[in-house]
Amino acid sequence: MQGRLPLGILAAYGIPGLPMAALGLPLFIYLPTFYATDLGLSLTAVGAILLLARLWDGVTDPIIGVLSDRTHTRWGRRRPWIIGATPLVLVSLWMLFVPPAGAGTMHLLVWSMALYLGWTMLALPHAAWGAELSGEYHERSRITASREIFVVLGTLVAAGLPVVVTGGTGPVLKVLAISLLVALPLAVLIACVFVGEPGAGRQRITRWQEGMAVLVANRPFRRLIAAYLLNGIANGLPATLVLLFAAQVLQLAEMSGIFLVVYFGCGILFIPLWLALSRRLDKHRSWCVAMLLNCAFFAPVPLLGAGDFAGFMAICVLTGLCLGADLALPPSMQADVVDVDTAETGEGRAGLYFALWGMATKLALALAVGIAFPLLDLAGFDANAAPGASTGAGVWMLVALYSLAPIAFKLAAIALMWNFPISAAAHSALKNRLVA
Q1: What domains appear along the chain, each with residue ranges and CATH number?
Q2: How far apart are CA 385 and CA 345, in angstroms?
Q3: Angle in degrees, CA 95, 369, 20, rounded to 5
Q4: N or C end of the chain, less CB within 10 A?
Q5: Average pLDDT for consecutive 10-residue bins of the chain (436 residues)?
């Protein structure tokens, strides 16, 4: 598809992001606590099982990406995977969120692996499909923005559910499971019926080794995924530590939900601003501006103390402004670097590229936790202390990891992206190669 897509098509494509995000947040936040407290499994067992399921998820990503690239049906390459994944996701989430009596470690392991497989089968083709809906440099940003807006809305729904549903984690998960049994198939149906899918185009490369050599030689892709990984760690550190920071530094633990809603809400509101700016500065420079502003807005965080509600709320608003660029622009640039591959191979391998993109996202979140928690422990920070009771080196380490370390990672990402070679003009020349 070329030209400017109607808003209805953008909304139809993006809407599966809402139930997928509403599923993702509880999967990572509520589920471990539920199995450890309500079902009585040990923390060690729950942690080990979910780590194993995550490793399995990393193995399936590139496999599903490649298989979806090589699928050929009259419904296209991506939609059959999305439709086929939906029943697996629904059955798996019900078994996990509403487990039968006596469910134990094997139940958690089997259904976690099944859910992660279904999630990959749905999410990766959906992302690759968005990259293929338009070959236009700026239109791709509108497409990714439409998906990410629904993702943020789904995150907000899942984050706010415990406020509405009382009785603990179990009832919350059951209400969510029932809601998703309706919402996910409906969203998939809307997307697959109302949004077309471009053809796969010409196919020239068949040897895996040759295709991998082209991927490794794709310098814009290497730079973009490295910058995305660095920025992902920068975003992952405060996301991992925000509850601890609100409780121990601000002593406003009860306001954490409000802070998160304001942050993500501002992210949605300011996406149009970054789309407009990217038409003037190109996508990579606009993303760099957003990261620079984020660094500036985060710099005063170490000056905050107990009860600084207004100061931290201002930071949530301002950094939320920058979140809009993180949501819309990097995935759009990822679609552009896939065109570099297509020009060399003759194949549309968006599935494989977005699989690697997904692996980088998961690695960034894992590194954020892997960096933060050991350093906090080394500094003597007590996560279970009463609000405001932690002092000294532990609190200083928390503040540094929450605010200063992300600035360093973002500056490194900016250094990689400032002179990124695929501008609007360069992409226009690349499109001419594809057409020739």
Answers
A1: 1-140+161-195 (1.20.1250), 207-436 (1.20.1250.20)
A2: 57
A3: 35
A4: C
A5: 82 95 80 80 77 80 87 87 96 94 89 93 92 89 92 86 76 91 97 85 56 81 93 88 84 82 88 92 95 96 92 94 92 89 80 85 78 82 68 86 95 96 88 73
